[in-house]
What does this fold into?
Amino acid sequence: MKGVWGEHTARAYLERAGYRTVETNFRTRFGEIDIIAERGEYIVFVEVKTRKSDRFAAAREYVTSEKQHPTALQPRFDVVEVYGGEGTTSVPRINHLENAFGG
It folds into this structure.
């Protein structure tokens, strides 16, 4: 499954970048959060979008405002785009957009 592979790839990328995974595939009444991670003073809610390429649109364009979840903590909402596919010989291309919904 492309989505599972993309989430695994994004999580490994984030952990190499110093994030600590708190939860994956966390479900709330508002929907699912792909990755919840911590780094420094932030709790980060990460939406992962996986596409073969960005030929037609960037993966982030498929993330809508409904993916934002309310919290009393200091939140930051990130998007990790993963381009590629499981079983391909090329290294996946990853684009991490920190504070994706910030001004």
In short: Helices lie at 2-16.
